Structure formats: C-alpha cells, structure tokens
Sequence to fold (757 residues):
Amino acid sequence: MKKDKKKFWIPLAAIVLLVAGSLAYVLTGQHWPVGTVIVYSINPNTAQVPDEDTAVRNAAGSWSQIFPAGLKFTYAGSSSATTFGRNYNNTVCWKDEGNNGTLASAYWWYSIPDNTTVEADLVFNDWYDWHTSGDQYDIQTVALHEFGHWVGLDHSTTGIMRASYSGLQRTIDADARAGFLDMYWFAQEESPSIQLDRASLSFIGSAGYDNPLPQQVRVRNSGELTLDFQVETNRPWIHVSPSSGSSSGQWREIIVTVDIAGMSIGSYSGTISVTSADADNSPRYLSVNLDIVNDKPPSVSITSPKDGAVLSEVVKVRAQASDDKGIEKVEFYLDGKMEITDRQAPFEWRWDTADFPSGGHTIAARAHDTIGLATEDVIEIKVDQPPSLSFVHPAADAEVSGIVSLTVSARDDFGVRRVRFYVDDVLKSTDRERPFGYEWNTASISNGGYRLKAVCFDTIEQSVQKEIPVFLIPHPPSNFVGEKQDNSSVLLEQYITGLSWEPNVLNENIQHYRIYRVEANQEILLAETEAGVFTCIHRDIDRDKIYFYTLRAVDSGGREGEAAFLEVR
Amino acid sequence: MKPFKYYIVMVFFVTTSFLLPISGWGEGRHDINVKVNYFFPSEHKFQEIYGQSLSFSGEMNLQLWKSFYLWLIGSYYDQEGSLPSTRERTEMTLIPLGGGVKLKFRAGNVSPYIGFGPVVFIYRESNPIGIAKGTRTGFIGQAGFNVKISGSLFFDISVNYSYCKVKPQNIEADIGGIQAGLGIGYLF
Fold:
C-alpha cells in the first residue's frame, strides 16, 4: 500500500551556496509519473499584484513547453487555498510569513517506495514585495524556480534552480532542462532512455582510515522497451557494482565506492558513465568528487538492540557516536534504506516493527561529523512478529451443547509453541501440537453463557489471545417417558400418548418445554408447556402406529436445548 | 341437577295433578306414579366413567281389560364423570320414553305387576373428545308391586331392565341397564 508523506520544503532564499563551480542539475529523488498533467489552481486574492496569476501560469507554461517531455502543467482556475496542505489539489497562493528570509516555498507529497509525487503546493511569502513588471521580486522567476522543485529538481549551482534569487530569469536554462528531461524524457520513437536519479556524488575520506561509506546512484529506463546499460568509471579509485544491468522502467541501484588506500590528502574528481547502445540519450555522466582530509572519522556503535537480537513490537534503536569535531547527525538505516536522521544525542530511533515482515533485517547507524566524515555500525537482527490466532470453531455467539470441539488457527513465522484454552478464564487445556484444539465436555455444567478463550504463544513467548462468547443450550430433560392409553368415553373413542418427564437439574432459567412429534426426520411441534408442567398428551393417535417424540427445554433467551428422544409403540 | 331436569319433573307432576280428581283408591282403574331409581348401567365402561347413580321416572298405567294395562313410562338420567386417562370432564344424558303392556294383579293391599314394551332412548354424551348424540329404539321390561298406603295412595317398588345398543361413531355400546326404583302413586 502506498502512503503519501509530506517530505520537505525547500526555501528559495534560505539556502546559501557553499560550492561554486560547474556542478550539473540535482534531483530531489521524487518525480511525477511520465505522462502526468499537473492540474493546478491559483488563489489570486491572496496577492495584491496585478496579473500575478498570469505570471504564475507563464512559469508553468515554460515547463510544459520543454520537448520531448512527458509532463505538462494545466491551469484549473482560481483556488481558495491560503496555505499548503495535503488535499489532492495542487495550489499556488500567497501568505505573509514574515521576514524569514524565504521568498517562497514548494511542498510536495510522494508515495513510498516508488517516490512518485502525488501532490504539490506553492506558497509565496507575502511579506515581500512582488512584481510582474520585472522589478525585484519577480513572480514569474520565483514561480519558475519553485515549479522546478515540483517537477523534481533540487537546488543547483547555476540557472533557475540556484538557491538564491539572482535577478530576473523567466526562461529555463539548459541545466534545468537537462535534469527535467532526465526525469520526463518522452521518447517519440520506441527506444530506451537512460535516467539517473542524481548528477553527482561527493565523498569525504579520512587519510589513514577506512574508505568512505559507499553511496548509491539509481538508473532506470525512462523510455520504451528495455534498457541494457553498462556502468564505467574513469578513475581507478572509483568502483561501481554492478557494472551493468537492465531496466524496463524500474530503478536499478548502483553502489559506488571509493578506495582511498594510498591516496594523499587533497581533492579528487572523476566520472561515472552510463552507456547503452540503444538509448537515445547515451551516454549519461555522473560526477564523483572525493576530498581526503586529515581528520579522524567519527566513531559510532549501536548500543541497543544487540546484534542477533529477536525483536517485535516497538524497538528503540540507540546509537552512541562521538567525534573530536562533533557529531553533525546520525542516520539510521533499515535494510539499506534511511529511516530517520537524529541530530541530537542521545541518538535513537523508535522503530515500530509492526509494518515489517518477520525475518532477518539489517540496521545501520551512520554517524556524520561536522566536516562530512561518516562511519557506520551495522547489526543483524531478526523480527519475529507476534503469532496470529483465530477461532475456527465454534463461531462467536454460537449455541453449543454436548462435547464442543474448540479449534483455533494459530500461526507464527517461527513456530507456535503452545495454545492454551480457557473457559470463563479457567485454564482447561494446553495443546502443543497441531491442530490446536480442545474437546470441551459440557455434560456436567449448567446451561447459559460462557467465554471461550485461546491464548497462543510463539517461540519467544509472545502471545496473542482471542475470546469468544458462546451459549450452552439447555440439557435434555430427564426421564422422558410415554405410553399409549385408551381415553375413550362410552360413545366416543380416543387413544392418546401420555408423555411425562422431569427437569434436568443442570438447567437454569428454563421457561418452556417444547414437545415435538418426529415424522420423516421432521420435528412437528406438538405442544409447548410452561416450565413447571412436566406432562403432555398427544391425542387422537393411531393405537397401532409407532410414534417418535423429542422434548427440548427452552431457556429465557428462547434458545432450545438438546433433545430427549422417545419411541412409543 | 340442571334446570332441564326440574322442568321434566315439573311437567310430569302438573300432568298427573290434572288426573288426580278423576277417581280414588279402590275405585279407579288407572294410576300414575313418580319414582327415584338407582341406575346400574349394563356397560362396564359406563359404570367406570359415570358410576352408579340416580335417575328419575314417571309412569302412567291405564286399564285396558281386566288385568291388562297400557303402560307409559318416561325417565331422565344425567350424570358427569371423568375420562379414563386424561380425567377430563364428560357428561351423559339419557331420556328413555316408552311404554307397553303391563299385567297387574290385585291381592289385598299389594298389587304385583310385570310389564314389557319398546322404548326410545334420546341420548347425548359430550366431552373434550367430542359430542355423540342421537335417538335409538330399544326395549324395556319391568317387574314390581304397589302397596296401598291409604285411600288412593300407594307405594310403588319396581325393577326395570332396558336395552338399547347405539353406535354413533366407532364405538357400539348398550346404554341401558337395570334400575331399581321406589315411588309413590295415585289411583284414579
């Protein structure tokens, strides 16, 4: 099941460029499905600028005109939105957020795990002065930038996706266009197309210590057919695995490692190329930057849980990290996927295992120091979900009698150790073998309501219990007897069967007795007597015929009990 | 006793009271009498259900020739009982109406007699099983004697035997029996 999640927002003016140079576009990792038409609406009433909606629409139109791309924008009219919010509508509005250094904010939500964007919003900070005439700040320029975030572009060092406002720019530069096409290339002919989820990788290594942690880049076919690709590097210290693969649209992960053994302190760069003979955009390049510094990397260890632990329910994963220059953050990974980033000690992650299948998993804690060096500690654990349990028989609220077979369906990924059976919280049986069940003999207990409970334990004593109410119907009345009798008067003939019985001492709350005549396996009601009457007459019988009778007690809930049987010859 | 019973007895006495002034004892050739009888049903089942009980009757004897008399008799019997198994209430009503020839002798103050004739039984039995009713002809025989009291009054002591087989539904039964009666009569 996919779930939408508010990921983050990227303030246009809040990020200060630290690295200058010719780095290419950067992708956020989320994108709309190729072929999507983004329908958006604008709330013009929140801005006091003439033609502000036209400026926004022009910006959206610029992205729609990129060819050949499988993503378009369509204006749906005005909106009443006054802020961002997850509501399945893509909206643009203005809101006074004060002098916080942020001109505008883009928000988007995407589904996990395929990172498909499902909604996006844009909020202009109305504290600033907005213009459509070209003066600072220009609505179309900022909208063009924020829509770049919508489509999946992260901040870049150049062009429209620069992090800070640098004057009027109402066209999409080549770098942003390349990134856009990387994600939304819509081949006009049937041919594969290479798409990378990022344009560069940066490593920082510590001289004399272990290699920097591996990073990954993802490759997929954004075109038609199947992409068969090869991955190569132009530097001996860059290693990729695997070095080839294929994709029909799925992302393929390429692990990139750098080997700094023997390398001295300094900065290095190289390139990873992804090539395909059939792709219409081959080759695609990924720049790799490596800085080797003279600093001890941070140390980190997972203190809880222990390596090899068997876990269930909610687990607190704790890591201890230290560094001479301070810990910037600790990232927690589960099976290679980052789950949470903790920037303050104690570093911990509250992991609810309920959504994860039983079995082996890898937990990693990756500590980053303040200069970008990283170290990780990895442990292997096993998730053992609690067992599952359900009653197979009887059903809840069932009317039972005699010997009742209690059977349950008990499952656990690593085995069920035992199932205990209770009647009204009194332990009756413990079963350690399948099929798990208990034969409940009700012959000597009073009729009425009972609670049946089963408790299932798995191999680590996790338990689950199920309880159902049942009704034990009345027992058959005692000493049910009868005989044929001549009830004729002087002139009128009549034979009868005189029936009599005694109450069953185990029965409680008996309201009636019902006497049935049984004929052709059908019970035909003969009479119903009050609780204190223990006789009944079947009139006008044939004295030469054999008669069969059943007698049932009826409790205050109208439940008929077990039958007492009688044959009268 | 039901009002119906009283009605029968009353009719009988009113009828005979019209005849009383006609003659006196020793002179009259005719007589009337009323009796209380003890009824022994012939059928065993009849006795089981209704037991032995009283009936009421009235008679008139009209001299035909010498010791031969025309004999008229009417009785009324009504009794409740219980069905044998269910002990439910059941009721039997018998009204035999008949007559015949009676031969009566005069021997001082005692006059023995014997009579025989047909009788029509009107019967009705009702209970939770149902109702059986109808009319059937049987016969009746009587033997007894009159004992003079004084004037025209006399005691009448008799024994009747009646027989009448009926079968209104499945069961055939004799609804007659023996009645031993004691009454008082009047000659006129």
